[in-house]
């Protein structure tokens, strides 16, 4: 689907007068016909704007994930809602650090769990024995 606003060179929040002027001065017949059908009537424009917002969100999501179209799709109608890959905003490295810390903590817990449990039981037995001796002798 074409991004009619981008192809006409007007922002999506432009008023009807600016939009109609851009449509009237458009030299591309097919683009002009599509823009008139989708943007000239208020109801059609509301429907197009809802779809435009959804496709823009998908394009931004793909950019955040680092997904881009292949070379054969670029500069075509399929690429109208694409954004450049946003690798700077990727959370991959931070997630990998958190996962590594969690795995390290889990490994540490597994390594010390058995000795710590044995020590705890030994101390509990020692305290219970001392309490029993105190009760029997006291």
What distance separates the N and C termini? 90 Å
Q: Strand pairing plus helix content: what structural class?
A: mainly alpha
Number of domains: 2
Question: What is the second-level CATH architecture of the largest domain?
Answer: Orthogonal Bundle
Largest sheet data: none
Contiguous low-pLDDT stretches (5 residues minimum) are none
Mean pLDDT: 84
Continuous helix count:
5
Gyration radius, rounded? 33 Å
The geometry reads as rod-shaped
Top-tier CATH class of the largest domain: Mainly Alpha
Report strand %: under 5%
The secondary-structure element order is HHHHH
Number of strands: 0
Q: Level of helix content?
A: 55-70%
- Kindly report the CATH topology of the largest domain: Helix Hairpins
Task: Characterise the protein shown here.
With 138 residues, this protein is mainly α. The chain folds into two domains: 86 residues, Helix Hairpins (Orthogonal Bundle), CATH 1.10.287; 48 residues. 68% of the residues lie in helices and 0% in strands. The protein has five helices and no strands. Helix 2 packs antiparallel against helix 3. The longest helix has 46 residues. The chain is rod-shaped. The N and C termini lie far apart (90 Å). The model has no long low-confidence stretch (mean pLDDT 84).
């Amino acid at each position: 689907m074409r991004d009619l606003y981008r192809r006409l060179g007007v922002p999506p929040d432009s008023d009807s007068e600016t939009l109609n002027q851009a449509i009237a001065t458009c030299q591309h017949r097919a683009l002009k016909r599509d823009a008139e059908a989708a943007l000239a009537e208020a109801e059609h424009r509301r429907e197009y704007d809802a779809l435009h917002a959804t496709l823009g969100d998908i394009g931004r999501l793909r950019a955040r994930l680092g997904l881009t179209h292949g070379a054969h799709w670029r500069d075509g109608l399929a690429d109208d809602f694409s954004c450049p890959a946003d690798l700077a905003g990727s959370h991959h490295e931070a997630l990998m650090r958190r996962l590594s810390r969690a795995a390290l903590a889990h490994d540490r817990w597994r390594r010390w769990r058995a000795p710590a449990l044995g020590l705890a039981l030994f101390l509990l037995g020692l305290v219970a024995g001392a309490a029993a001796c105190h009760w029997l002798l006291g």
